[in-house]
Amino acid sequence: MSETLTPAQAWRTLREGNQRFVHGTSSHPNQDSARRDELVGGQNPFCVIFGCSDSRLAAEIIFDLGLGDAFVVRSAGQVIDDAVLGSLEYAIGVLGAPLIVVLGHDSCGAVTASIDAYTSGEMPGGFVRDLVERIMPSVITAQRNGVTEVNDTVVEHVKQTAKRLLATSQTISSAVDEGRTAVLGVTYRLAEGKAELVSGFGNV
C-alpha cells in the first residue's frame, strides 16, 4: 500500500480510521485469513506509528487498521533510543513507509513521573530513571513556557520528540526533505478516543 500512498494520503487514511473508532463504526479491515496469507511473503505498511506503550493506546485499534497496515514501535513515554531509531529507519529506508506518527496520550504515566522528578528534584530508581531522563528535556521546555499540567506537557513532549527524530536521524530527515515521508506529532484523548494533530514536518 505504501507505494501508492503519499504522506498526505496516509494521514487521511489514519484520520478516517480514527473517526470510525470514535463513532463506534470501526470496519476492522485486513483482519481475515486472506489478508494473513497475502502477507506471508513480506510487508508493505503505509505508516509507522511510534507511540507510548500504555495499554490504552493500541494503535491498530484506535486507527481501525489491520494486518500489514502499520509498522508499530512503542516505548513508555515514546522515548527515543538506538533501538527505536533503528526500527524507524528500517521502516522508512527499507520498507518505504511514507508517514511516521509520534503518538502520545492523556495522563501519560512516564510524563507524570518526569514532572514529579522535575518538581521534587528526586529521580526514580532502576531503568525508570532512564525513561525520565529522556523525557526531562520536554518537561523543562514546557515548564519554561509556563506549562505545568500533565496533558499539556504531553503535547510538548510529542512536539519535541518529533523534532528530535529529524535532528537525530539522517535517514528520516532526508526522507522528509525529499517528500518521501512526513513526521507528525499526534496526541490521543483517552475519554473521547480522538487522535489530534499537534505538529508536523513534511507535506500532509
Automatic annotation (TrEMBL):
> Which top-level enzyme class is recorded in the Swiss-Prot or TrEMBL entry?
lyase
Domain of life here? Bacteria
InterPro entries associated with the record: Carbonic_anhydrase, Carbonic_anhydrase_CS, Carbonic_anhydrase_sf
Enzyme Commission numbers on file? 4.2.1.1
Keywords, alphabetical:
Lyase, Zinc
Q: Which reaction does it catalyse?
A: hydrogencarbonate + H(+) = CO2 + H2O
Q: Does the keyword Acetylation apply?
A: no
Describe the task this protein carries out: Reversible hydration of carbon dioxide.
- PANTHER family associated with the record: CARBONIC ANHYDRASE (PTHR11002), CARBONIC ANHYDRASE 2 (PTHR11002:SF79)
Q: Which family does it belong to?
A: Belongs to the beta-class carbonic anhydrase family.
Instruction: State what protein this is by name.
Output: Carbonic anhydrase
